[in-house]
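Reading a protein record of the kind used here takes only a little practice. To see the layout at work, look at the sequence and tokens printed below.
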Amino acid sequence: MERLTDAAVSAALTELSGWKRVGDAIVARYACAGFPEAIALVTRIGFLAEAVNHHPDLDIRWRWVHVLLTTHDAGGLTQNDVALAKQIAVAATGMGAEAVALAG
């Protein structure tokens, strides 16, 4: 898979509320109602990721779910990252999670 240009990443981020670029990755943080809801969101992300064989780094902190996407094989961001981020955003919203802006 071919790496996205900086312009393509910037354009994609305009369609991904709460996501931002950090180096060769895109990241988001979702606020859930509580810990069980955060676990449910991670489970949903796991099924989405497995279906497309593209797996994010996930971090759960009480009611917060942090998501990091990059394509290691390509050494940066690809369309796979953007496509999965869009699926995650839809799933999170549908589950009542709110994207929370990251500092910086």
